Amino acid sequence: MKYLIAYYSWSGHTKMTAERIARVTGGNLFEIVPTEPYPRLYARCAIAAKAERDKNARPALIGTVENFDDYSDVIIGYPAWWHTCPMIILSFLEQYDFTGKRVHLFNTHMGSHSVGTELIREHCKGEVIESKDANELKQESQIKAWLGL
Fold first, then answer.
1. What number of other Cβ atoms are within 10 A of residue 23's Cβ?
2. How far is CA 115 from CA 20, 22, 25, 120, 148, in A?
3. Best CA proximity match to 104, nearest among 51, 142, 66, 67
4. What Cα–Cα distance (Å) separates residue 14 from each residue in 20, 55, 56, 105, 118?
5. Which DSSP category does 84 fall into?
6. Which domain, by its residues, includes 46?
7. Are 19 and 29 a contacting pair, CB within 8 Å?
8. Is the Cα dihedral 120, 53, 83, 39 positive or negative?
């Protein structure tokens, strides 16, 4: 199995979890970066995220994953925004063909727990596994159990 860990991190929490997963799996990291950064002030970011969700927007991204077809498993991490994943995750999903891949999700949050799975399943042809609460992925043993390693 070859892992790609793709993540969008607004505050750094999702990035820390993605890096931990990469250390455990030996996978490659790919940061999902918007061409236009989200506001750094939380209240303004929340307003922008809600507007994107309401418009079903697809924010533009910087960069692409090299050799995407080489990965058997793609782990996607994101913050919970408005009870789902940020729309930038859908921008990422729509750039690649996930057919035949296992897609593991995790999300960070401030109290909303695991979200985004259903929306991602609507936009991804791979085998999408229920999003995992990043609070349950703090130990190497938890990550290994989650991924069946």
1. 13
2. 20, 22, 23, 10, 21
3. 142
4. 10, 24, 23, 11, 20
5. B
6. 3-147
7. yes
8. positive
Number of structural domains found in the chain = 1
Counted residue by residue, the chain has a size of 149
The residue written with tokens 């927007």 in the block is 57
- Residue 61, both tokens: 């991204």
Tokens of 21: 């997963």
Could you tell me the pTM of the whole model? 0.93
Tens of pLDDT, residue by residue, the chain (149 residues): 799 999 999 998 999 999 999 999 999 999 999 999 999 999 999 999 999 999 999 999 999 999 999 999 999 999 988 888 999 999 999 999 999 999 999 999 877 777 788 989 999 988 999 898 899 999 999 999 999 89
The CATH number covering residue 86 comes to 3.40.50.360
